[in-house]
């Protein structure tokens, strides 16, 4: 029995030794895979930077054409399923004066981007011609930050203050972190998790036409539908009574 136990122990030692050697080999191969993945990321980044440069003249051309369509950008914003959730009615009215919307990625696209909202001259809300929200994503290990243009509101036109005084039951319902569009614009507390900015950069900006062209769907109020059904039922009852008579 003792001899048998020694054989089992020897077998276990051999298995552990083989397993340890295999794990070292796997680790070595994994390091090679990681090195290739890192190289691939660098190559993909170079390709993305190249095509960002190639896209620029087309974005500029598109922006010039968009200027011919009144309220193009505010319509695209209102039709976007997530971004529209930010907009109070008063803010929507303000954005009718927005004549240009742009997203500019930095030359090193890993380091960040800026979102620019350009407005008509002498509009009634604020003095700024351009509002910019810029994201620096910490490519140099400095940590992500964002900064927004200080809005120079005209007298009695500060929508941030006016909306904060508006009763909650008269505001649009939303399930978002931000209370309104200008709340989002001015908030720079968590730039790495700014979903609205990401949607603007990666969804709205590449193809705004798909949101501008979203068809208007008229939905009749449920009360009207119920009322119509009741009227139809009443007519049927009257017809049956006339037949019985």
From TrEMBL:
Query: What single Pfam family name could you report for this chain, choosing any that match?
Result: NAP
* Similarity remark: Belongs to the nucleosome assembly protein (NAP) family.
Please report the organism this UniProt entry assigns to the protein: Corethrella appendiculata
Any one of the GO BP annotations: nucleosome assembly
Cross-referenced PANTHER family, in alphabetical order? TESTIS-SPECIFIC Y-ENCODED PROTEIN (PTHR11875)
- Name of the protein in question: Putative perinuclear region of cytoplasm
Q: Which Gene3D superfamilies match?
A: 1.20.5.1500, Nucleosome assembly protein
**InterPro entries reported for this sequence:** NAP-like_sf, NAP_family
Q: Which GO terms describe its cellular component?
A: nucleus
- For region Disordered, the annotated ranges are 1-23, 217-245
């Amino acid at each position: 029995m003792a001899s048998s136990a020694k054989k089992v122990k020897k077998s276990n030692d051999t298995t552990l030794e083989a397993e340890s050697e295999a794990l070292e080999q796997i680790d070595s191969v994994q390091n090679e895979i990681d090195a290739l993945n890192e190289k691939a990321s660098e190559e993909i980044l170079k390709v993305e930077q190249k095509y960002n440069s190639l896209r620029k003249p087309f974005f500029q051309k598109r922006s010039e054409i968009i200027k011919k369509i009144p309220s193009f950008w505010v319509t695209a914003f209102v039709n976007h399923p997530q971004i529209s959730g930010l907009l109070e009615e008063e803010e929507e009215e303000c954005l009718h004066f927005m004549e240009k919307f742009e997203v500019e990625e930095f030359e090193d696209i890993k380091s960040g981007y800026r979102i620019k909202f350009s407005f008509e001259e002498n509009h009634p809300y604020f003095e700024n011609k351009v509002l910019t929200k810029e994201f620096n994503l910490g490519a140099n290990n400095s940590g992500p930050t964002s900064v927004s243009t200080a809005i120079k509101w005209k007298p009695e036109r500060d929508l941030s203050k006016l909306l904060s005084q508006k009763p909650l039951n008269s505001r649009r319902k939303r399930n978002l972190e931000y209370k309104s569009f200008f709340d989002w614009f001015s908030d720079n507390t968590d730039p790495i998790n700014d979903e609205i900015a990401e949607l603007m950069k990666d969804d709205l900006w590449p193809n705004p036409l798909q949101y501008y062209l979203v068809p208007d769907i008229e939905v009749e109020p449920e009360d009207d539908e119920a009322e119509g059904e009741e009227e139809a039922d009443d007519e049927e009852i009257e017809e049956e009574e006339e037949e019985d008579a």
